[in-house]
Every structure is written in C-alpha cells, then in structure tokens.
Specification:
Layout: H1 3-26, H2 29-36, H3 40-46, H4 50-74, H5 79-94, H6 104-112, H7 117-143, H8 153-174, H9 177-192
Helix pairs in contact: 1-2, 1-4, 1-6, 4-5, 4-7, 5-7, 5-8, 5-9, 6-7, 7-8, 8-9
Pfam family, one: TetR_C_13
Keywords: DNA-binding, Transcription, Transcription regulation
Protein name: TetR/AcrR family transcriptional regulator
Length: about 200
C-alpha cells in the first residue's frame, strides 16, 4: 500500500464514525480535520471534496457491518438461525458495538434521501444487496424444507429489513430499548413461524 493509500484509508477510518453520527450535512471539514489531525490541504490532497470522503466513509461503515453479519451467519447451522443472526447483530447497533452512531443504512438513507443523490444511490445498493442476501437464505431454507415453500422470499426479506430498520428508528427516537426488544420479539416470532 502506498503512502497516499494509507492516508486515504486513515482519513476514512477516522471520519466514518463522524459521518454515521452527524450525517453528511452535519459533518464539517473542521470535524474531518479534527478527527484526523490533518490539514484541509491534506484532506483535499487525497479527496476531491467532502462528497468523496462521505461516499468512502459510507462504504467503510457498510462493509464493516457486512463483515460482522457474515461472520455471525457462518456460525449458524439452520436457516432460521441465520435469519435470527441479523437480529443479534443489529442489537449491537443500539449499544454501539459495530458502528458508532448506529446503522449506517438507516442514518444515511434518511440523511441523503433528497439532498445527496450519489449517497442515496450507495444506500439503495446496500439495501438491495441486503435484500438479495436474505432472499438467498430463504430460498436455501425452502430447498432444505426448513421454511415452508408457500412463503415469498422477497416478502420475507423486505419484512426483516423493515422491522430491523424501523425498530432501530423507533427505539432511538423514543430512547427506549424496550421498544427495540418488543419489535425484535415480534420479528423472532415471525421468523420462527416460517417453518
């Protein structure tokens, strides 16, 4: 890795939690320089603008989460266990275990919805990738007869994603972990009813 690549990686690693907590609009160049200890010139010597830093920070946050989720899923033997792994991993968002600031998909989707098309497109691709992964798990579960074959894999994937992201939003908004637990209890019952 070249010095320039190391510097870019350093900037992304240091700023990714800030973008995740403060959002694109809320993160200033001063936040970036304070987090990295680098000058504005050093930042702009490695990135054309704040947009490039934000896009790289989202990629970093998302890939970090995907790695953790995939590791948890690999520990599971059953399809239901793999689906329930999402619940377990996302639980750590509420206590800061994976990404500072919570779920980067939810945070960035809300932040970039109408204001940043390139960032919105990255989030859309992330959600579609997540949906595809769940559909694949469900299809495997149907093949192995762990999940009833009259279930719609896409509907299951969208329901899981909506309940997780909605649960995070509601529990953070109300500042009540018990709301997350109630919603995740419903999601666990839903997943267990698929077989």
């Amino acid at each position: 890795m070249t010095k320039a690549e190391r510097t870019r990686n350093f900037i992304v690693e240091k700023t990714a939690p800030i973008f995740n907590m403060k959002g694109y609009a809320g993160t200033s160049l001063n936040d970036i320089t304070a987090a990295t200890g680098l000058t504005k010139g050093s930042i702009y010597g490695n990135f054309a603008n704040k947009d490039e830093v934000a896009l790289a920070a989202f990629d970093y946050n998302f890939q970090n989460n995907v790695s953790k989720i995939e590791a948890e899923i690999r520990k599971q033997d059953s399809t239901k266990g793999k689906l329930l792994a999402y619940v377990n991993i996302y639980q750590s968002f509420l206590v800061g275990g994976i990404s500072q600031g919570g779920c980067p998909i939810l945070n960035t989707a809300i932040d970039a919805d109408d204001t940043h098309p390139a960032l919105r497109e990255k989030v859309l691709k992330a959600v579609l990738s997540w949906k595809k992964s769940i559909i694949k798990l469900v299809e495997e579960g149907i093949k192995t007869q762990e999940i009833k074959d009259d279930n719609n894999p896409e509907q299951i994937a969208l329901t899981v994603i909506a309940m997780i992201e909605g649960g995070i939003m509601i529990s953070r908004l109300t500042n009540k972990l018990e709301n997350w637990n109630l919603i995740m209890d419903s999601l666990k019952k839903y997943i267990n009813s698929l077989g």
